Amino acid sequence: MDSQLEQQLEKIMPEDLARTFESAYHVIQGRHEHIDDLLKHGGVLLRKAAQKFTPTQMVLGVAGLATVAIIFIGREMHKEGEGNAQDVTPRDDKRQFANNSSKKNDDK
Fold it and tell me: The pTM is what?
């Protein structure tokens, strides 16, 4: 009975995946206080996966995840550099600028 319980505990459960993806989502959203959770949940998931897969499968899996992470991070960094220019001048200042430019035109 104990060995059956141990085997069941070492299976990759949906909760393990959910916790890992949730922590990753929080870190991607900029909440860096969840990095510890991501490392902990990812480590548990990796330990459980290591028992199921061969070393070759683990190396290929980790390499695939790293590749996806690098591509995703590159795209996010590229998005941050791009953006639409917006006028952030307060509305009251715009009226002053409009009035000043019309006065200057009247003076000429």
Answer: 0.53
